[in-house]
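Morning!

This is the sequence you dropped in the shared folder:
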Amino acid sequence: MELLDGPAVSAALAGLAWARDARTLVKVVRRHDFADALRYVNEVGALAEASGHHPDVDIRWDTVTLRLSTHSLGGITDADVELAARIDALG
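The structure's back. Tokens below.
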């Protein structure tokens, strides 16, 4: 696994609902309420467990912020982009 360079990250983001924040992919999702936010996080958690790659998660009532990076390498890799795409498919 290798870090993606800036142009590769930009190209990957073209088809995703994520933003780049330095060396991290970030997605903010608003849900109906806290219970719905928790359901969403559980769905994300199932994807993360299946892929063996886990986002940082912050829940603020109806707002979920997800951050993806490969901590061991200090940046964004294909594993982050792949999980981001799977998370986007949740809707």
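Headline: The first strand starts at residue 19 and ends at 21.

More detail when I'm at my desk.
O.
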